[in-house]
Hints:
- By secondary structure, this protein is an alpha/beta fold.
- Helices cover 34% and strands 14% of the residues.
- It is built from 14 helices and eleven strands.
- The protein has helices at residues 25-35, 75-85, 98-102, 106-112, 137-143, 164-189, 199-206, 208-215, 253-263, 268-273, 278-289, 294-301, 321-326, 362-368; strands at 16-20, 39-44, 64-68, 89-92, 117-122, 193-198, 235-239, 245-249, 308-310, 329-332, 335-338.
- The chain has a six-stranded parallel beta sheet, sandwiched between helices. A three-stranded antiparallel beta sheet has the order 7-8-9, with helices on one face.
- α1 packs across α6 and α5 crosses α7 (199-206).
- The longest helix is centred in the middle third of the chain and has 26 residues, at 164-189.
Amino acid sequence: MQTRQTERTGPLAGVRVVELAGIGPGPFAAMLLADLGADVVRVDRPGGAGLGVDPAKDLTNRNKRSVLLDLKTPEGPAVVLDLVERADVLVEGYRPGVAERLGVGPEPCLARNPRLVYGRMTGWGQDGPLAHTAGHDIGYIAVTGALGMIGPDPDGPPTVPANLVGDYAGGSLYLVIGVLAALQHARTHGEGQVVDAAIVDGTAHLTSMIHAMLAAGGWQDRRGSNLLDGGCPFYGVYETSDGGHMAVGALEHRFYAEFARLLDLPDADGLRGDLARWPELREVVAARFRSRTRAQWTEVFEGTDACVAPVLSLREAPGHPHLAARATFAEHGGLVQPAPAPRFSATPGTLRTGPALPGADTAEVARDWAVPALRPAPDVPPTQESKTA
């Protein structure tokens, strides 16, 4: 695993970000910016987010610094605006109208700093009939059609893909894309703006290729019936004799040929080319995989172009030889975690510090950002680790 680096060398070095503490995709988006070198100051609220997660283990707050402010007091919003005046980006994930009621909405922030990029992360967006309604990832991806197409059984319920598709792919990543595009515009034209990143918008956008295939007649609007959703017997997951699983993605003919050879499939081309025989092919492939363990099949397919891989657990993944060789995972402070991504040849992102503890960096940020109104919260001394940021 890669070793810890302390230099702020990422491509966003010099970019200052204010994050108004929240949960889910907002903190993850801010973590991405921090991983890429931005100086992210998280404004935590007294009492925390109420999730019961140990702040020392919340990896979405790595590479950040934290100050403690109560935005419901008269002085809280004023201090946030002092930070905003010195910032390039603000990220918030409140329901629509909450930031405005707290006095830190786009209007006062852009009045204080006209070049500011004001990033807003919500599920439903800033307007629309559901804008003020509570929601979670599963509901957002449900109404966009994304959830309905995930799962191998057309007659069974969809498979819930954790909260990766909505919160992080459709949410965090689109917020970061929007923030970086707006930051480029601000630096070119001196004009800040609001970025309205809605999980429903981003998730719908992710399905663009599927909609194209649907329009062209190459995709059925029924899960478990298509090339990429488990309907194809050579693109799916199979159980092994020890209860493990192997993932098969042998779509192209030359990859399928290698897959069939190593699996010793009878009449491989005939089974592949005749859709009416796909159920038979699935049964044959399943029976083959049930004849050996996951480790044995991994050895069979290792280093080949058959496009077959073992299905690993979260704890197993860091030990995979390829991921270990690339240092895809890192260890810091006793926590194994994904390393910053993507990679840059000249300005690599770094893992500098562990999760920022609420309020631990208040005095340091007050000094570095020249905001004397910031005061360290009582009984929350700066940590040694926070001083390395």
